[in-house]
């Protein structure tokens, strides 16, 4: 009864001896046999979530690489009182389940795609449905729900941070690999630039990125923004149906509640718009030598703070915070309806399904660019 155990021990000894002999002469590496059995593959550690501050005097903002999100933006009013003028949360963890898109960079395609599908190069692509019958802001896990990599940080007179995200082929149903960058920079006194670009690597794909901060120039906790004055440099909108999908037509704003060609209070005609404003304006101002055009001016008469927005996109979504419903935000403040407004420069919503709209298709090797300039005064 003792021979089988002895024989087994001898066999195991010989097996290990042969293994270490062949390993010592490089057999396993030379023939690439069985490497996965003996060594785990090396993996790049995922980026860590952080908070980064850009500051120039009494003008500052904080950004997180979770969703490439603007967390806060502080600037003085006409009396020198400094306040945070963007809505948001105190903790990064609260952004994980956020449905308001506070401060986020949204994509791969911002705004709505009708029915969650589109046709491209004779192939139908199906996307997650996350807003009624439609896809909104890139799907269930858009760019606002991913951790971006910090590629570069700059200090000095014009501090900046550059974030990067690789969106893989098939992510949220979209075709092709996409390399995405965004740079937030204090480019002058009370001036913020946002530079977004995305390179299609393998397949043609729609791209439409947007910065989704909610502004309240009286301070994030100052209540409704209906007394804010707003001027939008547009003579037309792209009207929508009951599902907030563009009909494909264009409508003049003259003589309608959508007319903000001259500075007008947000609340002046809002009761004529069910729920409030949530529509794309077709920008009519001429671009300058850098391709930038005037988008909008916003002013809070009480604080004296004002915002001037320039961008290189054909449209801007004016959203009056219609769906805010007692969201618990910074300092425990409850954000209710119309407590903030968004000016999301963009390509036209649902452009992939409206061939009379400017195309958002980026072919392999092409680069999508979206630049914004915010100038604040008080």
UniProtKB/TrEMBL annotation:
<feature type="active site" description="Proton donor">
    <location>
        <position position="212"/>
    </location>
</feature>
<protein>
    <recommendedName>
        <fullName>Aldose 1-epimerase</fullName>
        <ecNumber>5.1.3.3</ecNumber>
    </recommendedName>
</protein>
<feature type="active site" description="Proton acceptor">
    <location>
        <position position="344"/>
    </location>
</feature>
<dbReference type="GO" id="GO:0030246">
    <property type="term" value="F:carbohydrate binding"/>
</dbReference>
<comment type="similarity">
    <text>Belongs to the aldose epimerase family.</text>
</comment>
<dbReference type="InterPro" id="IPR011013">
    <property type="entry name" value="Gal_mutarotase_sf_dom"/>
</dbReference>
<dbReference type="GO" id="GO:0006006">
    <property type="term" value="P:glucose metabolic process"/>
</dbReference>
<dbReference type="InterPro" id="IPR015443">
    <property type="entry name" value="Aldose_1-epimerase"/>
</dbReference>
<keyword id="KW-0413">Isomerase</keyword>
<comment type="pathway">
    <text>Carbohydrate metabolism; hexose metabolism.</text>
</comment>
<dbReference type="InterPro" id="IPR014718">
    <property type="entry name" value="GH-type_carb-bd"/>
</dbReference>
<feature type="binding site">
    <location>
        <begin position="212"/>
        <end position="214"/>
    </location>
    <ligand>
        <name>beta-D-galactose</name>
    </ligand>
</feature>
<dbReference type="InterPro" id="IPR008183">
    <property type="entry name" value="Aldose_1/G6P_1-epimerase"/>
</dbReference>
<dbReference type="InterPro" id="IPR047215">
    <property type="entry name" value="Galactose_mutarotase-like"/>
</dbReference>
<feature type="binding site">
    <location>
        <begin position="111"/>
        <end position="112"/>
    </location>
    <ligand>
        <name>beta-D-galactose</name>
    </ligand>
</feature>
<feature type="binding site">
    <location>
        <position position="278"/>
    </location>
    <ligand>
        <name>beta-D-galactose</name>
    </ligand>
</feature>
<keyword id="KW-0119">Carbohydrate metabolism</keyword>
<dbReference type="GO" id="GO:0033499">
    <property type="term" value="P:galactose catabolic process via UDP-galactose, Leloir pathway"/>
</dbReference>
<dbReference type="Pfam" id="PF01263">
    <property type="entry name" value="Aldose_epim"/>
</dbReference>
<dbReference type="GO" id="GO:0004034">
    <property type="term" value="F:aldose 1-epimerase activity"/>
</dbReference>
């Amino acid at each position: 009864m003792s021979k089988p155990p002895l024989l087994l021990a001898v066999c195991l000894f010989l097996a290990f001896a042969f293994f270490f002999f062949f390993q010592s002469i490089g057999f396993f590496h030379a023939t690439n046999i069985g490497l996965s059995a003996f060594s785990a593959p090396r993996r790049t550690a995922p980026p860590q979530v952080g908070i980064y501050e850009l500051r120039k005097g009494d003008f500052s903002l904080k950004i997180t690489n979770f969703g490439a999100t603007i967390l806060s933006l502080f600037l003085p009013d006409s009396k020198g009182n400094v306040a945070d003028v963007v809505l948001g949360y105190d903790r990064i963890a609260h952004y994980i389940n956020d449905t308001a898109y506070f401060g986020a960079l949204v994509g791969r395609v911002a705004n709505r795609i009708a029915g969650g599908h589109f046709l491209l190069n004779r192939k139908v692509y199906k996307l997650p449905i996350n807003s009624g019958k439609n896809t909104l802001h890139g799907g269930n896990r858009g760019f606002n729900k991913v951790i971006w990599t910090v590629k570069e940080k700059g200090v000095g007179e014009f501090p900046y941070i550059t974030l990067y995200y690789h969106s893989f082929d098939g992510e949220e149903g979209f075709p092709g690999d996409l390399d995405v960058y965004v740079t937030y920079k204090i480019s002058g006194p009370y001036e913020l630039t946002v530079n977004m670009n995305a390179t299609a690597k393998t397949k043609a794909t729609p791209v439409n990125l947007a910065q989704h901060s909610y502004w309240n120039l009286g301070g994030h906790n100052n209540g409704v923004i209906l007394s804010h004055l707003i001027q939008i440099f547009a003579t037309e909108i792209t009207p929508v149906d009951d599902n907030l999908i563009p009909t494909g037509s264009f409508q003049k704003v003259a003589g309608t509640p959508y007319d903000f060609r001259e500075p007008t209070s947000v609340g002046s005609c809002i009761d004529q718009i069910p729920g409030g404003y949530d529509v794309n304006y077709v920008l009519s101002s001429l671009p300058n030598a850098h391709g930038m055009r005037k988008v909008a001016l916003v002013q809070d008469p009480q604080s004296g703070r004002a915002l001037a927005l320039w961008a290189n996109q054909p449209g801007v979504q004016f959203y009056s915070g219609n769906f805010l419903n007692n969201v618990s935000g910074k300092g425990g403040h409850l954000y209710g309806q119309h407590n903030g407004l968004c000016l999301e420069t963009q390509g036209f919503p649902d452009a992939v399904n409206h061939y009379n709209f400017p195309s958002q298709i980026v072919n392999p090797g092409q680069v999508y660019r979206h630049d914004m300039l915010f100038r604040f005064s008080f």
